[in-house]
């Protein structure tokens, strides 16, 4: 019995130090957290998020969750990346389309939140790939989105996700992605 009591005392003495270190590390990470500066470092300029073309909105916030409507790959010149991955487009071109879609989603976050530093976590993404019937590398395509989220938001950008193939997407876009974001 006396050994258990000593173990508890040691544990009780260590816990406050571990918690203090954890808070200090978290605070240091928060001070360095500037997604908008990271976008500038990456040479990414956000455009105003595109407006919905039907009876829905770009985003809905409930509590601390922001649900973003699906967006597609809009190039800087205003054209869409279109075509079926595995037929018209390579995996690499699909990856780039997913990255472009990620930029559109970040623009939507910025429009909705005002400041990207309010993003606490990219929680979940649903990536849809306009794919040829025999195509199977959907995750490799959606990695374009996932890699961008980590580049911009760091560990906060790591998310759960699904990557699925579709027989078609609106306007023949190569990729559509919707996201759930935890916000402050």
Describe the model.
The chain has 184 residues and is an alpha+beta fold. The chain folds into 2 domains: 1-32; 35-183, 60s Ribosomal Protein L30, Chain: A (2-Layer Sandwich). 42% of the residues lie in helices and 21% in strands. The chain has a 5-stranded mixed beta sheet, covered by helices on one side. Strand 1 (59-62) and strand 2 form a beta hairpin. It is globular and about 45 Å long. The termini are far apart. Mean pLDDT is 89; it is low at 15-28.
Task: Write the topology of this structure.
Blueprint: H1 2-32, H2 35-41, E1 59-62, E2 65-71, H3 91-113, E3 119-130, H4 138-153, E4 160-166, E5 175-183
Parallel strand pairs: 3-4
Antiparallel strand pairs: 1-2, 2-5, 3-5
Helix pairs in contact: 3-4
- Which sequence of SSEs, written as H and E, runs from N to C? HHEEHEHEE
Subunit arrangement of the protein: single chain
Largest sheet: 5 strands, mixed
Helix share of residues? 40-55%
CATH level 3 topology of the largest domain: 60s Ribosomal Protein L30, Chain: A
Please identify the top-level CATH class of the largest domain.
Alpha Beta
pLDDT below 50 for ≥5 consecutive residues: which ranges? 15-28
């Amino acid at each position: 019995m006396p050994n258990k009591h000593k173990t508890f005392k040691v544990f009780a003495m260590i816990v406050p130090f571990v918690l203090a270190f954890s808070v200090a590390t978290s605070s240091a990470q928060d001070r360095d957290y500037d997604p908008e500066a990271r976008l500038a470092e990456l040479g990414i300029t956000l455009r105003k998020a595109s407006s919905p073309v039907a009876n829905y909105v770009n985003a809905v916030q409930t509590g601390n969750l922001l649900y973003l409507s699906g967006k597609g790959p809009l190039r800087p010149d205003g054209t869409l990346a279109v075509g079926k991955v595995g037929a018209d487009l390579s995996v690499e071109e699909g990856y780039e389309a997913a990255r472009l879609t990620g930029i559109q989603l970040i623009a939507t976050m910025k429009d909705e939140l005002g400041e990207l530093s309010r993003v606490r976590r990219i929680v979940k993404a649903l990536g849809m790939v306009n794919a040829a019937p025999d195509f199977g590398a959907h995750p490799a395509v959606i990695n374009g989105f996932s890699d961008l989220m980590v580049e911009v938001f760091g560990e906060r950008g790591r998310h759960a996700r699904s990557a699925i193939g579709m027989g078609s997407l609106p306007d023949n876009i190569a990729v559509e992605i919707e996201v759930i974001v935890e916000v402050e």
